[in-house]
């Protein structure tokens, strides 16, 4: 009973601190007089100083420590008054001094905002430390690091911080833009579900699932926001990048806590998040006042955002895997000791990083999580897709992801063969693997050959879209609203521009050649290993399997976050995916092509939206439409954005179905809709906010003919 009463009392103190802190943050944020800002900062400092005295007493309660505590707090408070008075006197008579008239804009500058965040943090830290001492928790009586980690991860700190974030959002809701408020509220909810706060076998798993789900929700919200509002102010952009970087560190810290039992990195992430939050929300006006720019013209910013989100997701995948399936996940991670000479440590760290990344990115839970997140963006895209064939393809793509990335490898295979290794670690002669060495390859040779024949036949009949826009997991990641809109980088990035158009540039041929040599080389090695002629393994892994893992569990994701430089759908545009290259070969002999209903419409077309909308950068399609009325490219993977974006409904995909109709003497397809052109909703022109499609077509964007470069429109932002 006494303990419960104590807890209620301490809880009321924490609630009072949270309310007072949020009120002072708002006061400082709104202040248009120096005096008010400084007084708010002073009161925040005083709250921390008060707790210093409490801690001095509680660390060794006695009359002596009580006197010492009161003395220390008193001295600190008096000492803090001096700079406050000095600042006020120095500012006397200046606009906004507090003695004269106020200033129009809030007073708090960047330096003072960071000071405010630091004061909030320190006073909350001291309060939590004090409450833990009052509770008699031994963990915070050790060394300084133990005090830091134990206090930050304590329920007093994280729940009070979460309450402060909720209250600050409520108090500043008139001043903060709606998007920031949403982000702040989601952050506060994530903070509530801090797995380290209460520990235990119920809270930690619950908190891990809830915080992961909320973080996925936050990322979906951010991505969709970026898609709908292509421009954002620099302060908001900076805030988002800082936030996702902190979340990356937080999820990595959570993994370290699970794996090694050390919560230091997680505590550091919490502290950084608080600094980011309070330094930002204490200056709400700058979110509204700063000019906005299109993020599609800021590759470095986009790269930073994607990287932060991705690191958080990979670590979240690892955390969920350890939580849900520790035996399978921890056994699949060959951790090398970080000891010995510097060179050995560096190599072992590199190997650990590679395998951590590969294992996490290949795990079921990572794929499920990415499926939910990227799938949500695909659903948004589905809702604005008009063309029936495109809608069917998007539906099939989502179904295939659920079946082939989640159900079959993670559920079906595991249930059917509980004692077999993960299928992705078994080399065999298969579409993605090359020639494998494992005896299983011989056993399933017939079945695997059949998959080649069936997939190849489907590609020949319906185009490589069967593989590259339906079966493969990659299109789920590429084709959701926001990531799809990053195809603008295919035209603006100097690297991505080398791979534009349907022709095989030297860069493309070199990439493709290297990949195919590596595929054949590792496959031959694998085969020679299997017959005992050689014994070549890469870190104990079959060479063809290692190449597969390096390509699809590591390389693919690295190039995914590098979209702002390498362009969207870069596995296709650069030709580095051997699966896509094999599909490409079948497309070469197949019936698949793009056709127009009326060549003259293309000749008169001022928009060229089809080419702008192509996610694999086939910018030369218009020239072919105008000359021959059709376009064949082995790079085309049938996504259909060109069809969606053509304002004249003049375009369709022709495959075996249309060929058969032609053989039967029937019309290949329905006639073109007549009437006024309807601009495609996802035309790249529209992605550059501030530039009308017409303005782009008039000369800003030039489609390359005969290998000329594409000039990118850069609209002036007012
Ligand atoms: S090129 Fe490869 S990774 Fe890209 S969509 Fe096609 S099969 Fe998938
Ligand atoms: S947007 Fe339509 S009409 Fe214009 S060139 Fe492309 S296919 Fe032809």
List keywords for this structure.
mainly alpha, disordered C terminus, 3 domains, 5 strands, 718 residues, binds iron/sulfur cluster, two-stranded antiparallel ribbon
Description:
With 718 residues, this protein is mainly alpha-helical. The protein folds into three domains: 2-31 and 108-322; 337-371 and 389-585, no CATH class; 592-700, no CATH class. The protein contains 36 helices and five strands. The strands form two sheets. The protein has a three-stranded antiparallel sheet. The chain has a two-stranded antiparallel ribbon with strand order 1-2. Helix 1 (2-30) packs antiparallel against helix 4 (110-135), helix 5 packs across helix 11 and helix 10 packs parallel to helix 13. The longest helix has 29 residues, at 2-30. Residues 96-105, 426-439 and 681-718 have low confidence and may be disordered. One iron/sulfur cluster (SF4) binds at residues 596, 601-602, 605, 607-610, 622, 625, 646, 648, 650-651.
Name the quaternary structure.
Answer: single chain
How far apart are the first and last residues' alpha carbons, in Å?
A: 65 Å
What gyration radius follows from the Cα positions, in whole Å?
30 Å
Overall strand count: 5
What can be said about this structure in brief?
By secondary structure, the chain is mainly alpha-helical.
List the helices and strands and how they pair.
Elements: H1 2-30, H2 34-59, H3 63-90, H4 110-135, H5 144-152, H6 155-171, H7 178-192, H8 195-198, H9 203-228, E1 231-233, H10 234-260, H11 264-281, H12 285-289, E2 292-294, H13 299-324, H14 326-331, H15 342-361, H16 364-383, H17 388-416, H18 439-443, H19 445-462, H20 465-471, H21 474-478, H22 481-485, H23 488-492, H24 494-497, H25 506-530, H26 543-561, H27 563-566, H28 570-573, H29 578-588, E3 593-596, H30 599-604, H31 609-613, H32 621-628, E4 630-631, H33 641-645, E5 651-654, H34 656-663, H35 684-687, H36 693-700
Antiparallel strand pairs: 1-2, 3-4, 3-5
Helix pairs in contact: 1-2, 1-4, 1-6, 2-3, 2-4, 4-5, 4-6, 4-11, 5-11, 6-7, 6-11, 7-9, 9-13, 9-16, 10-11, 10-13, 13-15, 13-16, 15-26, 16-17, 19-29
This protein binds iron/sulfur cluster (2 copies).
One iron/sulfur cluster (SF4) binds at residues 596, 601-602, 605, 607-610, 622, 625, 646, 648, 650-651.
């Amino acid at each position: 009973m006494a303990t419960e009463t104590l807890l209620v009392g301490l809880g009321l103190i924490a609630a009072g601190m949270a309310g007072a802190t949020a009120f002072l943050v708002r006061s400082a944020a709104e202040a248009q007089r120096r005096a008010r800002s400084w007084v708010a900062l002073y009161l925040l400092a005083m709250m921390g100083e008060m707790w210093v005295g409490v801690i001095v007493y509680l660390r060794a309660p006695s009359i002596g420590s009580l006197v010492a505590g009161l003395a220390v707090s008193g001295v600190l408070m008096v000492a803090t008054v001096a700079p406050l008075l000095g600042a006020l006197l120095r500012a006397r008579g200046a606009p906004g001094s507090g003695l004269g008239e106020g200033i129009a804009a809030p007073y708090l500058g960047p330096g003072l905002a960071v000071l405010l965040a630091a004061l909030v943090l320190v006073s909350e830290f001291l309060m939590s430390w004090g409450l833990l001492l009052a509770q008699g928790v031994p963990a915070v009586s050790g060394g300084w690091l133990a005090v830091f980690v134990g206090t930050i991860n304590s329920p007093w700190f994280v729940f009070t911080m979460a309450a402060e974030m909720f209250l600050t959002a409520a108090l500043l809701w008139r001043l903060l833009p709606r998007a920031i408020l949403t982000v702040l509220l989601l952050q506060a909810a994530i903070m509530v579900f801090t797995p380290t706060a209460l520990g235990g076998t119920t809270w930690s798993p619950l908190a891990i699932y809830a915080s992961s789900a909320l973080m996925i929700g936050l990322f979906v919200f951010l991505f969709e926001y970026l898609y709908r509002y292509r421009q954002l102010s620099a302060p908001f952009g900076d805030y988002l990048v800082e936030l996702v970087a902190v979340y990356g560190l937080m999820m990595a810290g959570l993994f370290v806590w699970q794996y090694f039992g050390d919560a230091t990195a997680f505590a550091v992430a919490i502290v950084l998040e608080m600094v980011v939050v309070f330094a930002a929300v204490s200056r709400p006006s700058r979110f509204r006042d700063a000019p906005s720019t299109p993020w599609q013209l800021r590759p470095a910013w986009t790269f930073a955002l994607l990287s932060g989100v991705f690191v958080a997701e990979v670590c979240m995948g690892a955390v969920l895997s350890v939580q849900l399936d520790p035996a399978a996940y921890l056994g699949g991670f060959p951790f090398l000791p970080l000891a010995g000479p510097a060179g050995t440590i560096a190599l072992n760290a590199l190997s650990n990083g590679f395998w951590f990344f590969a294992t996490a990115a290949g795990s079921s839970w990572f794929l499920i999580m990415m499926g939910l997140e990227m799938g949500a963006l695909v659903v948004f895209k589905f809702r604005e897709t008009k063309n029936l064939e495109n809608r069917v393809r998007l539906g099939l793509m989502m179904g295939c992801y659920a079946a082939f990335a989640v159900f079959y490898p993670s559920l079906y295979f595991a249930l059917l063969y509980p004692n077999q290794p993960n299928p992705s670690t078994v080399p065999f002669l298969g579409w993605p693997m090359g020639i494998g060495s494992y005896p299983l390859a011989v056993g399933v040779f017939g079945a695997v050959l059949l998959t080649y024949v069936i997939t190849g036949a489907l590609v020949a009949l319906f185009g490589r879209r069967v593989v590259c826009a339906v079966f493969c997991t990659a299109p789920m990641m590429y084709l959701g609203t926001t990531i799809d809109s990053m195809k603008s980088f295919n035209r603006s990035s100097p690297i991505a521009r080398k791979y534009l158009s349907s022709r095989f540039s030297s860069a493309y041929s070199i990439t493709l050649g290297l990949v195919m040599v590596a595929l054949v080389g590792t496959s031959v090695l694998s085969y020679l290993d299997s017959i005992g002629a050689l014994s070549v393994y890469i870190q104990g892994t079959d060479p063809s399997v290692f190449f597969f893992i390096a390509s699809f569990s590591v390389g693919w994701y690295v190039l995914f976050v590098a979209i702002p430089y390498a362009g969207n759908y870069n596995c296709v545009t650069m030709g580095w995916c051997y699966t896509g290259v094999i599909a490409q070969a079948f497309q070469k002999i197949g019936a698949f092509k793009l056709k127009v209903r009326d060549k003259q419409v293309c000749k008169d077309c001022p928009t060229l939206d089809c080419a702008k909308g192509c996610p694999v950068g086939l910018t030369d399609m218009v020239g072919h439409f105008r000359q021959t009325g059709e376009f064949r490219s082995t790079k085309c993977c049938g996504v259909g954005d060109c069809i969606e974006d053509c304002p004249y409904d003049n375009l369709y995909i022709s495959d075996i179905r249309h060929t058969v109709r032609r053989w039967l003497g029937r019309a290949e397809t329905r006639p073109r809709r007549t009437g006024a052109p309807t601009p495609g909703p996802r035309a790249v022109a529209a992605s550059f906010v501030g530039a009308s499609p017409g303005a782009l077509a008039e000369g800003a964007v030039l489609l390359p003919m005969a290998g000329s470069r594409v000039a990118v429109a850069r609209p002036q932002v007012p």
